[in-house]
Amino acid sequence: MSTRRRTSHGPGTPVPSLTVRPLDGCRGVRAAGEIGLATHTIWERVLEQAVREGEGVYYLELSEVTFVDVAGADALAAAAERLGDGRRFVVRRPPPALRRVLEMFWPDLPTIEVSMS
């Protein structure tokens, strides 16, 4: 799965994008870019696919993600709440703001594990 979305913005304005590709060696994806209004549909599709796949652990490598808005964090938490028993997302190297938002609003959500390594 490799997905990229661009939207129209004013002249000289960088176009937010999100690129997603499968991880090598484990179930999950590597995302690069921004998770915001312009790329929210891509992010939700990625999370919905992860929920449907039924794997025990699904990795979200976010070290190349530069921004996640609150709606993107909410979509992650909502998807994590739909995971079945014993399943979880491992969010690797998220942007610091995402880690803080998850700790602030969903501190006891056992289906999201944040890994900085």
UniProtKB/TrEMBL annotation:
* SUPFAM superfamilies documented for this protein: SpoIIaa-like (SSF52091)
Which residue ranges are recorded for the region named Disordered? 1-20
Which InterPro entries would you find in this protein's record?
A: MlaB-like_STAS, STAS_dom, STAS_dom_sf
Where's the STAS domain? Answer: 16-103
Give one Pfam family.
Answer: STAS_2
Q: What is this protein called?
A: STAS domain-containing protein
